[in-house]
């Protein structure tokens, strides 16, 4: 089972000027249209319904990234399921791979309480941690 990461833990990486998304950590937002409500800075959007098709591409591109964090709105279904799919494909790729493959050391986690929890935590207190926030769409959710 994938482990969870709190918003405060993930925010440390996002705030750190010495860490770069896609290099030092990767945030994969698996929401669909609800992605356009707002998102975490540096997150990439891969809708959950595309994860089986795109996981291999993500693994190839980000295999050296030490930490991958998945999330959806609440991280109850789409986020954990996408993390599981990604992890299964990683395991397949590691069969027969060299022990030094950086993919073997990659951690895969799920953002606890998803984007809703993130936005509730940081929207007012630290608005720079919520990009492209759309209040009207948020209120309509």
TrEMBL record:
GO cellular component: cytoplasm; nucleus
Xref: SMART domains: RHOD
EC number, UniProt record: 3.1.3.48
Domain Rhodanese: 21-127
Membrane-spanning segments: none
Listed GO MF terms: protein tyrosine phosphatase activity; thiosulfate-cyanide sulfurtransferase activity
Keyword Metal-binding: no
EC class (word): hydrolase
Superkingdom of origin organism: Eukaryota
Alphabetically ordered keywords of this record: Hydrolase
PROSITE patterns: RHODANESE_1, RHODANESE_3
UniProt-listed PANTHER family: ARSENICAL-RESISTANCE PROTEIN 2-RELATED, M-PHASE INDUCER PHOSPHATASE DUAL SPECIFICITY PHOSPHATASE CDC25
Protein name: Cdc25 phosphatase Ibp1
Species assigned in the record: Coemansia javaensis
Lineage, highest ranks first: Eukaryota, Fungi, Fungi incertae sedis, Zoopagomycota, Kickxellomycotina
Designated gene of the protein: ibp1
């Amino acid at each position: 089972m994938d482990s969870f990461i709190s918003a405060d833990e993930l925010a440390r990486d996002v705030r750190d000027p010495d860490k770069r998304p896609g290099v030092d950590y990767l945030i994969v937002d698996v929401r669909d249209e609800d992605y356009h409500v707002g998102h975490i800075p540096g997150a990439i959007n891969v809708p959950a319904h595309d994860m089986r098709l795109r996981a291999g591409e993500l693994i190839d591109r980000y295999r050296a990234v030490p930490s991958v964090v998945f999330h959806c709105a609440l991280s109850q279904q789409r986020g954990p399921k996408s993390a599981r799919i990604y992890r299964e494909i990683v395991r397949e790729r590691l069969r027969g791979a060299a022990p030094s493959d950086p993919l073997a050391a990659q951690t895969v986690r799920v953002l606890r309480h998803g984007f809703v929890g993130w936005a509730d935590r940081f929207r007012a207190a630290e608005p720079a941690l919520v990009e492209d926030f759309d209040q009207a769409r948020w209120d309509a959710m």
